[in-house]
Amino acid sequence: MDDQVLVADIGEGEADWRRKPAWLKVPMPGNDSYREVKDMLRGLSLHTVCEEARCPNIGECFGHRTATFMILGRICTRACRFCAVETGRPTGLDTEEPERVAGAVAQLGLRHVVVTSVARDELADGGASIFAATIRAVRAQAPDCRVEVLIPDFQGDLDALRVVLDAGPDILNHNIETSRRLTPRVRAKARYDRTLELLARARQHGRPGLRTKSGFMVGLGESRDECLETMRDLRAADVDILTVGQYLRPSAKHIPLVRYWTPAEFAGLKEAALGMGFRHCESGPLVRSSYHAHEQVEAAG
């Protein structure tokens, strides 16, 4: 097969999501560090987006003793059509979770941690107070660790955003996920312009030195011009770091995959992003927002 888009004739506008090109194949996880991290997380009753979202990089990340912690439980109140995280009605709030996350960060000896969450739209602050408590707990137990948070949109509640920012994260990430045209089909309850406003407000109200970050997927039917439009919109919101990765359909129940973008196309998007003024762009088939997160921030300066 040459370096062209892989699309099988299984239906108009749909690719064979089970038949991946060579550049998307990764080794099976299973080294000692992988098992150690997995056992530690289970022992502390912690969740990771690596597992819940079926990230293809889990073997590499766990193997290097890194993980993206997912707080506020494992049940999401939203049903985004691209996401493998379980949807339903969460119950309760684990106020001791921030200390356990911080303990895991200290035990792993992390210098950079990413903390994300499910959407908890039923909570008055969307879980912002737990994000803030987690940031403070990490600062207390692992003071040399840089803290990146990948937050939901809090339904546009700017007071909730300020609660997170006042806790002093080093990087605030909120993913735009897809183009303006595709947002209603792809993201449940989310709004394209609300994401841009959140990112712009984070820049305005965050402490000096705060880096902002966002990312999107390709392969859902967007055009290259739509990708460039999304990138320009993020730059207008003064976003520092951009991630671009391939959508991988988790199951037949999720939104169809339209096509696989080639490595050369990802390289072209990175070149365009840097030309627009992003401090750093991580663009590639296996890129996810927290993949090599520490290196992304260091590259951004």
Features:
8-stranded mixed sheet; single chain; TIM Barrel; 37% helix; alpha/beta; 301 residues; 11 helices
Descriptive notes:
It is a single chain. The protein is of the alpha/beta class and 301 residues long. It has a single domain (28-300), classed as Aldolase class I (TIM Barrel), CATH 3.20.20.70. Helix content is 37%, strand content 13%. The protein contains eleven helices and eight strands. It has helices spanning 32-43, 49-52, 58-63, 97-108, 128-141, 158-166, 183-186, 192-205, 224-236, 263-276, 293-300; strands at 47-48, 68-71, 112-117, 146-150, 171-173, 211-218, 241-246, 280-283. The protein has an eight-stranded mixed sheet with strand order 1-2-3-4-5-6-7-8, sandwiched between helices. Helix 5 (128-141) links the parallel strand 3 (112-117) and strand 4 (146-150). Helix 5 (128-141) packs parallel to helix 6. The longest helix is centred in the middle third of the chain and has 14 residues, at 128-141. The chain is globular and about 45 Å long. Mean pLDDT is 84; it is low at 1-12.
The CATH topology is given as: TIM Barrel
Order of helices and strands: HEHHEHEHEHEHHEHEHEH
Helical element count? 11
- How does the helix and strand content classify structurally? alpha/beta
Q: Total number of β-strand segments? A: 8
Instruction: Quickly name the level 1 CATH class.
Output: Alpha Beta
Number of structural units classed as domains: 1
Helix percent band: 25-40%
Coarse shape: globular
Q: Could you name the CATH homologous superfamily? A: Aldolase class I
What's the story with the biggest beta sheet?
Answer: 8 strands, mixed
